[in-house]
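P.,

For your records, the input lines for the assembly:
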Amino acid sequence: MKKNLKQEIIAIAKEAKAASASLAILSSAQKCAVLKDMAAALLRQETAILKANRKDILKSHAKSKAFVERLTLDKSRIKQMADSLLSIADLKDPVDEVMRAWNTSSGLSIQKVRSPLGVVAIIYESRPNVTADCIGLCFKSGNSVILRGGSEALNSNLEIFNVLQEVMQKYNLAKGSINLVSTSDRKAVDYLLKLNDYIDVVIPRGGEELIKKVVKSSRIPVIKHYKGICHVYVDEEADLNMARNICLNAKLQRPGVCNAMESMLVHRDVAIRFLPRMLQEFREAGVEIRGCAFTKRIAKWVKLAAKKDYRTEYCDLILSVKVVENLDEAIAHINEYGSHHSDSIVTDNNIAAAKFLKQVDSACVYLNASTRFTDGNQFGMGAEIGISTDKLHARGPMALEELTTYKYLIYGAGQVRV
Amino acid sequence: MKKNLKQEIIAIAKEAKAASASLAILSSAQKCAVLKDMAAALLRQETAILKANRKDILKSHAKSKAFVERLTLDKSRIKQMADSLLSIADLKDPVDEVMRAWNTSSGLSIQKVRSPLGVVAIIYESRPNVTADCIGLCFKSGNSVILRGGSEALNSNLEIFNVLQEVMQKYNLAKGSINLVSTSDRKAVDYLLKLNDYIDVVIPRGGEELIKKVVKSSRIPVIKHYKGICHVYVDEEADLNMARNICLNAKLQRPGVCNAMESMLVHRDVAIRFLPRMLQEFREAGVEIRGCAFTKRIAKWVKLAAKKDYRTEYCDLILSVKVVENLDEAIAHINEYGSHHSDSIVTDNNIAAAKFLKQVDSACVYLNASTRFTDGNQFGMGAEIGISTDKLHARGPMALEELTTYKYLIYGAGQVRV
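C-alpha cells returned:
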C-alpha cells in the first residue's frame, strides 16, 4: 500500500516534468485564453464547488472560528478566485522576456532570457482559493505545478482542481501540467520532497511548523518565510499623528497575518509624548501590551516583556513594545529579533530614513507607511504565490517573475575560443 | 580538540556575519581603493607567495602532472591575480543599484534595490588564484567571505590571504570581512555547512565528489554545478566547415574543463559527409571516440558507446558521438543525458536554431559557436566565482550580480491599508 503511494507520487512528478516542456513553449495568447476560460468555469461550477466546500466545513466543527472562516467559500469568494485568474491572464507574460542583451569582444551576441523553472510544488493549508491562484500563476509562468493542500480542505481543493483540469483538457494540454495530490496520507509529502530530479522548487505556505517540516526533509530547494515579526519604529522626528495611524493599522487591520506589526519600537525622546495615548488606544482595541521597563513605567497595566516576546509572532491582539535609545538600537534590535520580513520607520528626518532603509536587513523596508502593504497585489504584481524572507532567488512578495529562472542564448557566426 | 575546532568555526562565521553589516555600507570608491591596493600588495609580496607555493608543490610530488600544473604559481600567474583584482575594482558596483522603481495605486513609491547577500562561503580545490578572485568578488559585492581551500594548496592560500588581510587592516575594515579556514581537518567543512544562521550561501568549486558531499551535508543553500556534459549538435543544414572548427575547438582547446564538449550529435543526413573526416581529425589529435552503431559503421576503429558514455564527463581526450534522426531527437537527447550546462547547435536554418535555443534546457545555449565561451570573463562579467547549472537564484556564469540579493524600499507619506 505504502509502496503504491510512493510510486504514485513519483508518477505524478514525472508527468509534471514531462508536461513542463510543452508548457514552456505555449504562446502568451494561448495561456491567456485558457486562464479566462478557467475563470468562467469556476463561476459556472459555483454550485458544485460550494457543495464540496460544505463537506469540508461539516468536518471542521471542532476547529476554531478563524480556521472555519479561512476554509469557508461563498459566492463572493468564488468570484474573487475567478477575478484573480482574469487578472493573471492580463498580467505580462514573463517567459521569453529579454532581461539583458549585449555583444562580447569575441563578437558573440548574448541574450539573458527569462524561462520557466519547470515544476513547482506548493504545500499549503486551509484556504481553498490558493488552489486556483497557484494553478493560475504557475500556468502563466510556463511551469507545471504539483499542489498538496491540507486535508481539511480536500473536497474543496479537489473540486476546484477538477474544474480547472477540465479546462486544460479542453485545450489538449498535457494532464501533468497541473496536479493535486489528493490523498490525505502524510507520507505523500515526504515522498514528494525527495524528488529533486523532477521538481525544481517547493513553496510551503502555512504555519511555522509546516514550513520547518518541509525545510528539514526536502532535497528540493525551498522558498519560504517562517514567520513575520514586523516592526514599526517611531523615530524622534516622527510625525506622531502619522505614527499613531500607521501603528494602529499595522497592528489592527488584520492581526492574524504575517505582515501585521508584532513589535513597536519608540525613540526615548518621544516616548513620553507618544506612548500614553497610543498604549491606551491599543488597550481599548483589546490589545495586550508586553513592554520594556520604560513602557511599563508609562502604563502600569502593561505586562513586562520577556526576551522571547520580541521573537514571537503572535498573529493575535498582542503587541510587544520597546523604548530604544536611538536609531542604531532600533536597527540592531530589528536585525536581531525580527524575521527579515517587513519593517517600517516613521520619521521626517531624511538621514535617519536613509540609514534605516539601508541597514535594516529585511525583504521590505518602509518609510512612513504601514507594514501591511507587503503583498503581491498591493505591490502591483497581480496575485501572489507567497512571500519570501530568504535571500536567494526571491525575496519579499513572489508572483510571476519569481516563478522563472533565466538562460543565456548566445548567437555566434562560427566563433571558437582562442 | 574537536570541540575547539567547532567553536572556532562558529566564531569565524559569527565574525563574518557581524562584518557583513559594515561591508554592505562601504562606498564604491572605498571598495575600489582597497581592491587596487590588494592588487599592488600581491605584486609586492610575490616572493613570499612563490615561496609558500613552493612548499605546496614539494608536498605534491605523488600527484598527477595536471594536478601540479593547477597548483603551481609563477610570476605571470601572480600578475594575473593582481590584474583580476584590478578588473574587479573597475567593474560596476552592483550594490544599491535600483533594479526597478514604480508607484502603486495607494501612492507608495517602491524601489527594488540590489543588496549584498551577507556571508558567502566558498569551498574549493587546488587553484590558489581562486583565493584572490573570490575575496575580490565578495568584497566588491559587499559580502563577507569564508574560504576553505584544499589542503594541497594551504600554504599558498594562506600567504595570499594574509597579504590581502593586511590590506584590509590598513583600511580598518572588520577582520571578519575575509576569512580563511586554515586547518586541514575535514571536520571543519561539516561544521561550517551547518551554520545557516550566519552563512547565506555556499558555493562549492571542484570535482563532482566534493560538490555532492557539500550538497548532502549542507543546511545552507548551495549554488553549484555537478558536471559539464556539453554537446555540439551538427544540424542537417550546418555549414560543415564551421561545424568542424567548432567541434575541434569545443573538444580540444582545453579538454579538462567543464565547458568542453563531451558529446557530439550529428544529423543523419549529414553524417556521411561530415563524420569521416571529423572522426579522423579527432583520431589524429589523440581523441578516443565512443560512438553509436551508425558512427561505428563510418569508422570501424570507433568504440561502441555504452549508454552511460553519454552521461559521462570525461574531462579528457575522449568523445561520445551519436547520429540522430532529427532536431527533436537531438534536443531530447541533450535534455535527458546532458548536465544543463552549455550546448551548441551548428546550423544555417533559423527555425531549427530558434527551436534548439528555446527547448534545450541548459544554462547556456549556443548557435554557431563553441561551448568553450561559457565563462564569466568571456561573457564580459569580469572574473567569475563559479558556474551554476541550478535554476534557482543564479544560472550559468556567476559574478558580482549573482552575489547579491535585493530588497524592496517602500516610500510612503503615512499610507495605511484599507
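Two observations worth noting. The mean pLDDT of chain A is 95. The two ends of chain A are 59 Å apart (CA to CA).

Regards
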